[in-house]
Amino acid sequence: MTIAAMPRRTSPLLRRLVGFNLITAVVLGAIGYYLGWWLGHQVSVAATDHYADTNQNDVALFLAYGLAVVGFLTGLGFLNYPVSRMLGRPASVAAKDEADGWKRYVSLCTDHKVVGLQYLIGIGFFLLVGGVNAMLIRVELLRPTPNIWPAGQYLTLVGLHGSMMMGMMTSGILGPFANYVVPLMIGARRMAFPRIEALTFWLLMAAGVILTSAVFYGGFPTGWTGYEPLADQANMGMDSYIVFFALVGLSMTLLGFNMLATVFSMRAPGMGWGRLPIFVWSVVATSALNVLAAPVLVTTLTMVALDRTLQTTFFLSSSGGSPFLYENLFWVFGHPEVYILAIPGFGIVLELLPVFARKPLWGYRLAVSGMVGVALLSFFVWQHHLFMSGLNANLRPFYMLSTELISLPTGFTFLCAMGTVWRGRIRYDVPMLFCLGWVFNFFIGGLSGVFLSDVPSDTTTHGSFFTMAHFHYTIMGGLIFTFFAAIYYWLPKMAGVQLNQRLGKVHFWLMFVSFNSTFAPLFVIGALGQPRRVVSYPKDLQFLNQWVSVSAFVLGISMVVFLANFVWSLVFARIPADPNPWHSSSLEWQVPTPVPVHNFDRIPVITAELYPYGAETTAPAAEPLTVGS
Amino acid sequence: MVVVVSNFGKKLAATGLVLGLFSAGLAWYIGGYLMVTPDSVASAATSAPATSELTLQTVAGLGDAYSQPTWVAYLVKDAHGVWRQSTNFTVPANSTVRVTVLQYDGASGLRNPFLARPEGVVGNTIEVDGKAVQAIDPALASHTFAIPGMHLVVPLEGVADDAPDQCEAAPCGLEKAHRTITFSFHTGSRGRFRWQCFVPCAAGFIHGFGGPMQTIGYMDGFLDVV
Fold first, then answer.
1. Which ipTM did the prediction report?
2. Looking at the partner chain, which of B8, B206, B207 has a beta carbon nearest the beta carbon of A572?
3. Which CATH superfamily is domain B40-225 in?
4. Quick check: A622 pLDDT over 90?
5. What is the pTM of this model?
6. Cα torsion for A265, A95, A489, B21, to the nearest 10°?
7. Looking at beta carbons, which residues of chain B come within 8 Å of A234?
């Protein structure tokens, strides 16, 4: 019997498990971790003395995390393609096809629709973890003195919550929704770089796990900002924060480049810049911020890692460095980051309002200039975070004015939103409710921001719960509300099933009321002087804090309602969604559900404006209409 | 007998499994890290009315028997006379607490000389090796025992660098080089008070403020007045 004729003895189960998939990735990741840890204890570097004194080997942990990520990505199969190209095999964009079924969702897949759904579940999971951390914070603050866990653990909890939300949610809209719908909206068959698209997702998942692991290394005391010199003094949990945010930054940069390349080079014929869907414009503005701001973060964190391992002194004033350098570099990234979170929300609101108000988008060019204006100005405001740091007082007027100036292009978005719904035939469906919730929340967030941009009022509100309330109104009230608007709006296309609308409305009202009941009192608490990140507070603030905590628990319950709706609708009920339940004229709704692997049989030609609602015809603005299979 | 499980049942079981795993993970996450804090050790009652005693020691490094062998730490003597690594203490309300600190660590020096003067102690005086003093040389301070919420500050003088027979692992016996600091303070009404060392004494960490200075169970903790 020849070898070729011999029957294969590998069991089917084993064959299924051995290969490039999530199981292999986890195994190789674990091997990489232990290899790095071992190597870190073998190498002799300047940090050895530090290790002997402190009993903490940061070199080992950085190597462990680094090799764990390499092992994880190798296990998923990210090296297969470059290796096969080096061996002279032909180029291909496909890593998985439809035949792989559900397994596509737990492995490297180059279909932008699969990546979008992977992002939705992955980010949703970490959003849940961050939300649980928030609940734990509010449990602790039920009493004015340390109650359940000690101050150090409380600080770590705050840091984990902030970092998880600010890090993972940077891709909260671009990850699930832009990846899924942008190629469909612009008439493309795929993203420009499908493997990079998949890489951005898996990097983010690795980052989330690494941040969560900080609790096993003593946590970290800096909150999400990682300020120096505290970051240099911190336990090994700080290394988890550094690797987490560096991976997030890398993912953001690659995601931004991919989005820009896709929109710039793969638009369907006839889709000029003046016909680009407004959501895609928000993706372009955000992606530009991603590629310009996120590399600063990665570089800065690399410098922190070098300070903690190779004993460089970039940020140590005692050795010629400067902690102010860190604070400036961080906010050069950090303030654009705020708009990386906000602008996609603008795009979703402006994309959805015409659909539910049955009117064309009012002021398309104004809306575009507003988003681009915010993106540009966001690089010139960062020092308002440092008004109280002792910076040169002569710098304050410029940054105060530039910060106030940014409210102008932000206001354009409001004008366009108001102009669009004005005298419209509004349908109060769940996505619309979340968009209207955004209008209210972001308005409060914007108004309270003025007090923080003005130097005189910032001197009393800086670092207090007032600041905390402000940014929760802008980020949770802005981003998270639009995140849910997008889920309710696009999930019928993405998953082929409709979420229960009644439960959706319960979710919205519970969330809207409890959100405001949670964060509005924090303005008062902050104005009365309670600082953020501190576990104890004066006894006379206990009632307000208890009110906030109870409201926060109701906010948590609203998330449980959503989760129940999500699981019920997707797993149990599975009521097939109408192909175009919102009667939208946008291209993504003109393809069949489920969307074919290659989106369009023939690339459509865009022949008309995109928002013709209320006009005589609401026919799709594309020819031929035989899009899809 | 063949048990037929419907599709619905399979989905229900899978959903329950996922939720169960998530809940278990969450409980482990909370229990495994957030709740970890040293037990509180009560002060010992004395024959004098409304008076109790707390006996502490500070060590430069805990030694290999502990999870952080190189970290500086406080230890406390419990009711059975056993030294335990804890910085959470329980004392009676509206009473006098007499504290004895056996100081085995060397001097690091205070950054703020103001803290070299005892505050909030009975008689504004502490005893160092049996001698009453109202201030110590800031450069000779090894640690402080300070409770800001009670306006209590006690500087602890360190062992000389060249002292013979220095202690290398906790718990340290009286035969090792040490200083003995005693003082008393009055507790007020019930409450929980944070206490900490204000000398940046975490060797190896930048500016001496990392590791044990940030971790309950080493250089800071809580005083529960009950």
1. 0.77
2. B8
3. Cupredoxins -  blue copper proteins (2.60.40.420)
4. no
5. 0.89
6. -150
7. 210, 214
